[in-house]
Write a structure and sequence with these properties.
elongated, 2 strands, about 90 residues, about 10% helix, mainly beta, single chain
């Protein structure tokens, strides 16, 4: 298992990339300029299970108030999440 990574604010990133994992300055490397690195984008999806609408299930109004409808069906709804990073 990998060691836990402490969280830090994004404003501290330019200083943090200059350090190795042990907290010491990187050896034999010039300082890393983040603005010179390519800005890349990745799209991931956050998916949740939601109840099938009562009207779509044909069960009538008021039915299916839980996560499952009367037939035990659920629907997966996904929303895109865009993340930016530099390499």
């Amino acid at each position: 298992m990998t060691p836990p990574v402490e969280s830090f604010p994004a404003s501290a990133l330019p200083q943090r990339v200059q350090l190795a994992a042990n907290g010491r300055a990187r050896k034999d490397q010039p300082p890393i300029d983040l603005k010179a690195c390519d800005l890349l984008e990745i799209v991931q999806y956050d998916c949740q299970l939601v109840a099938v609408a009562a009207a779509a299930a044909g069960a009538g109004a008021g039915a299916a108030t839980t996560e499952e409808d009367v037939n035990g069906r659920r629907r997966i709804v996904c929303a895109p999440v865009t993340r930016l990073f530099r390499r």
